[in-house]
Specification:
Layout (H helix, E strand, L loop, with lengths): L2 H20 L5 H18 L3 H22 L3 E2 L2 E2 L6 H25 L5 H19 L4 H19 L3 H25 L2
Antiparallel strand pairs: 1-2
Helix pairs in contact: 1-2, 1-7, 2-3, 3-5, 4-5, 5-6, 6-7
């Protein structure tokens, strides 16, 4: 497939998936599965191997999130937000950082990855954000905002300009999701 067409297709499905997620809609999960499949191909071609692996793991998280949300009570057809205790926030971020360091070392020493340490850390923290999203925690959006800002720079360096622009849009969608989820979490 033409790399530009592949990247643009991934962008379209990604935007739709994140927008649906910000709206707390179940359809976000299958749309997200299409998105991660397409982006796995994009990142493999760009030699961003941690991001490629991340897309595959995201696929598993998306299946988990889809089933988890289906079992949760709904409000106006939307999933209800769950609080994130501080001890779990600290634990999950700690696991994310340690996983990022381990994956970065692996990619640095055993592959020709373009940006092994940064790519690995962003991948690990993205998994934490995806986990929180599947568990319906508003904190997911704060983490997505931070991770997406850094991703913009990384994709610019790798000349993935369309994807960098997508991540700028993701930042806006994450802010929208944060506001919507905070409002939904308020009794």
């Amino acid at each position: 497939m033409n790399p530009a067409v592949l990247e643009w297709s991934a962008v379209v499905f990604s935007v739709l998936g994140v927008w649906l997620m910000a709206q707390r809609r179940l359809l976000a999960w299958p749309v997200g599965l299409v998105s991660v499949g397409l982006y796995a191909l994009v990142f493999a071609e760009a030699k961003l191997y941690s991001d490629t692996l991340l897309q595959l793991v995201f696929g598993g998280f998306l299946v988990y999130g889809w089933f988890n949300w289906r079992r949760q009570p709904l409000q106006d057809g939307r999933v209800i937000i769950a609080p994130l205790p501080v001890r779990l926030l600290v634990r999950d971020l700690g696991i994310g950082v340690m996983s990022g360091i381990a994956l970065g070392a692996l990619m640095h020493h055993h592959t020709d990855a373009a940006l092994p340490w940064l790519d690995a850390m962003l991948a690990a923290l993205s998994l934490v954000a995806q986990w929180w999203q599947a568990r319906r925690h508003t904190a997911t959006w704060w983490l997505w905002i931070v991770v997406d800002v850094v991703y913009v720079g990384m994709y610019m360096v790798k000349s993935l300009h369309v994807t960098a622009a997508l991540y700028v849009l993701f930042i806006g969608l994450a802010v929208m999701g944060l506001r919507a989820w905070k409002k939904a979490a308020t009794p």
